[in-house]
Write a structure and sequence with these properties.
The chain has one helix at about 1-35, and strands spanning about 45-50, 60-65, 70-80, 95, 120-125, 130-140, 145-155. By secondary structure, the protein is an alpha+beta fold. The longest helix has about 30 residues, at about 1-35. It is globular and about 45 Å long.
Length: about 160
Amino acid sequence: MMSLILLTACSSTAKADQLKIETYKTMYTDVLNASGFINSSTFFTVTPSVNALTDSTYRYDVILDDPKVAMYDVEILLIRDDGSLVISESMMPSVGIFEGKTYTMIPHQTNTSANFVQGFDLNGISATIPIKLKMVVQWKDASNNPFKEYFQFDLTTTQD
């Protein structure tokens, strides 16, 4: 009986992990195939930057904060676009996909223990410059209506 319970628990965990991976792949493909990219939003502030590091690499950050509306079930995927239409072997920065919890952004409200956050910093390291980034941000409003915005940034060391 105990073996059956353990097997069921492992199977359930594997299915949940597979669902997260499929969500990631779907969002990744969605970003690669998207058009109509923007570089700012009326719903929140988005700030991209890049900084040279001492080891001749570059750290890129995209900060998403200062929500103007209530945003529930926030999911974000930021990808470094090398021009090919394939999913990279390395994991890209994301929010709300693998954590096993949902995030909420509401103007002037923060409660990190309840996953009410002021914002997110998605970042990574690149060996080359310029860095081309694409991002999808999706969420629901208080009436459970879905929203989705696509962003594109071309970063060089002169941008801060």
